[in-house]
Amino acid sequence: MSALRTLRLVGLLEGVSFLVLLLVAMPLKYMAGLPIAVRIVGSLHGLLFLMFVSTLFRTATERQWPLRRSLLAFGASLVPGGTFVLDRALRRELADAVGHG
């Protein structure tokens, strides 16, 4: 799988895990007294975040992205739903790469 495709996949998984952490696990912890939800989902999200950063570095290096592009992609992972916006740009880049390569 290409670095760009891997980044899309990991980004989408990381984005979903972030939303589940914020919208499901955190309310379960604070409103239902179930801190285990945050422990489990938070651990999974942490792993996916590290995978995202690693995959982002690989992709940015292979595709020779400017630093600004890489930083914007990283920033997208810090904002809830940001990786879904990033995915639209990655999908366009992937389509251009397939169309020209």
TrEMBL record:
Name of the protein in question: DUF3817 domain-containing protein
Organism from which the protein derives: Pendulispora albinea
Signal peptide extent: none
Subcellular location, principal: membrane
Transmembrane segments: 12-30, 36-57
DUF3817 domain sequence ranges: 4-92
Keyword entries, A-Z: Cell membrane, Membrane, Transmembrane, Transmembrane helix
Compartments, record wording: Cell membrane
Top-rank taxon, per record: Bacteria
Pfam families: DUF3817
Bilayer topology: Multi-pass membrane protein
UniProt cross-references to InterPro entries, sorted A to Z: DUF3817_TM (IPR023845)
